[in-house]
Amino acid sequence: MPSLPTYDLFAIRYAMRAAKRSDHFIGGDPHDGPMPMDYFVWVAASDAGAYVIDTGFTAEVAARRGRTFLRCPVESLHLVGVDPDAVGHVILTHMHYDHVGNFHKFPRARFHLQEPEIRYATGRLMCHARLRHSFEVEDVVGMVRLNYAGRVDFYNGAAELAPGITLHPAPGHSVGLQFVRVHTRRGWVVVASDVTHFYENMESGRPFSTAVNVGDMLEAFGTLAAHAPAHEHIVPGHDPQVMARYPAVSPELAGIAVRLDVKPQM
Ligand SMILES: [Zn+2]
Question: The pTM is what?
Answer without folding.
Answer: 0.97
